[in-house]
Specification:
Layout: E1 2-6, H1 14-26, E2 31-36, H2 38-41, E3 48-51, H3 60-73, E4 77-81, H4 83-92, E5 100-104, E6 119-122, E7 135-137, E8 154-158, H5 167-172, E9 181-184, H6 190-199, E10 206-209, H7 214-222, E11 224-229, H8 238-245, E12 250-253, E13 267-268, H9 273-283, H10 293-302, H11 305-321
Parallel strand pairs: 1-2, 1-4, 2-3, 4-5, 5-6, 6-7, 8-9, 8-11, 9-10, 11-12, 12-13
Length: 324
C-alpha cells in the first residue's frame, strides 16, 4: 500500500512525533511518504519526504502544489493530520480523485471541515462531536523506556507553555505543596509563567526548563515521583500514557481520555483552580501512598503503539474497500 502522511506544522512537536512513530511501524510492510515543511523534514530522514512549502490554507498556489504531488504519486491513501491539511485536501478533491483520512489531534471550536474526509479519526469521543463522516476513536499511544528508575524527588509537568495546558493554574495550586515541581516545555507563555512563579514567591519550589528530546524525557520520568496534567482541554494527553506505561503515577484534570484511565477521585475539574489545588494538596506530597499498579498494566495493554496502529490500518482498508 502506498501511504502518504500530510502535515503542515513547521515545528516538531506532538503531532509530528505521533506521525513519525506510526509511519515507522507502517513502513515495515508498506511504502510510506511524508508531506511536510522542510523545517521538520530531518526528523523523517528514514522515509520518502516531499517538501511542502509553507503557505496559508487558502493559498491557491499551495493547493496547486499539493494537487501536482498527488497526481504524480498516486497514493492509495492519504492521512491528513489536523485541520489545515484537511482543508487543503478538501479543495484539491474538487479536481482530483483520491481517498483521505483526517485525524483530529486537538479540541477545535469547529470541526466541520473534517466532514470532507472519507473517514475521521479522533483521540477521544469529544473530538468527534459534529462529525458526520464515518469516524471512530483511536487513542494516542505510549513509548516504552529503558531508563533506570532513580530516587524520585520532584513532581513533573510536561507540555507546550500555552494557556490550554493550564500551567498558570498549576503554579497557583502549588502554594501549600512541599514537593518541588519541574515544568518542561517551550511556548509563548514562558515569560508570564516565570513572572507568576516569582510573584507567588515559589522560585524555591517551581522551575521551568525548555523542551527536551524523547530520551531525556524518559530519564525525567524515571527521576520523578508523579506527573501532573493540568490542561484545560486535551486530545490525549500522550505524556500521561508514557508516564503510566513507565510506572510513573499521574494526577490529572478530566480531559481527553483521562477519565477512561484514572478514577474520578484523582481527576480535577478542568479550568478550575479550586478543584486542581484540592487534588494537588490531597495527593502530591503523599503520592507514595497512591497505588496505581493496576492502571500501569491497563495502559500497557490497551494503549500500545502496535494495537492502535492496527486500528489505523483497519480504517485504511475499510476506506479502500468501500467502493471496490
Amino acid at each position: 500500500m502506498k501511504i502518504c502522511h500530510y502535515l503542515s506544522g513547521s515545528t516538531f512537536a506532538g503531532i509530528e512525533q505521533h506521525v513519525a512513530e506510526l509511519a515507522a511501524l507502517q513502513q515495515a510492510n508498506h511504502d510510506v511518504t511524508i508531506l511536510c515543511d522542510k523545517a521538520i523534514g530531518e526528523h523523517y530522514k528514514n522515509f520518502n519526504v516531499i517538501d511542502v512549502k509553507h503557505s496559508s490554507r487558502r493559498s491557491l498556489l499551495g493547493a496547486f502544489r499539493i494537487y501536482k504531488i498527488l497526481k504524480l504519486n498516486k497514493f492509495d491513501i492519504i492521512h491528513a493530520h489536523a485541520s489545515k491539511p484537511v482543508f487543503i485536501l478538501s479543495v484539491v478533491k474538487y479536481f482530483l480523485k483520491f481517498k483521505f483520512i483526517g485525524s483530529i489531534h486537538g479540541v477545535k471550536s469547529n470541526n466541520k471541515i473534517f466532514n470532507y474526509a472519507d473517514y475521521v479519526i479522533g483521540g477521544n469521543k469529544k473530538l468527534l462531536n459534529g462529525i458526520q463522516s464515518p469516524n471512530s476513536v483511536i487513542h494516542n499511544w505510549y513509548q516504552s523506556s529503558s531508563a533506570e528508575k532513580h530516587k524520585s524527588i520532584h513532581a513533573l509537568a510536561v507540555g507546550r507553555l500555552e494557556k490550554v495546558k493550564g500551567f498558570d493554574l498549576l503554579i497557583k495550586s502549588w502554594i501549600n505543596i512541599k514537593t518541588p515541581l519541574l515544568i518542561v516545555g517551550s511556548g509563548s507563555e514562558r515569560e508570564s509563567l516565570v513572572a507568576l512563579i516569582q510573584e507567588l514567591n515559589l522560585t524555591n519550589k517551581i522551575s521551568i526548563t525548555n523542551w527536551v528530546e524523547q530520551e531525556e524525557l524518559f530519564k525525567l520520568y524515571a527521576q520523578s515521583k508523579v506527573l501532573i496534567i493540568s490542561s484545560r482541554s486535551e486530545g490525549g494527553p500522550r505524556v500521561a500514557l508514557e508516564a503510566l506505561a513507565n510506572n510513573l503515577p499521574v494526577l490529572s484534570t478530566d480531559v481527553g481520555h483521562m477519565n477512561l484511565i484514572l478514577p474520578q477521585e484523582i481527576l480535577a475539574e478542568p479550568d478550575n483552580l479550586e478543584s486542581l489545588q484540592s487534588l494537588m494538596e490531597s495527593y502530591v506530597d503523599n503520592i507514595i501512598n497512591l497505588n496505581q499498579e493496576s492502571i500501569f498494566e491497563f495502559v500497557k495493554q490497551e494503549f500500545s503503539l502496535a494495537k492502535q496502529a492496527d486500528k489505523v490500518m483497519n480504517v485504511y482498508l475499510s476506506v479502500l474497500n468501500k467502493d471496490s
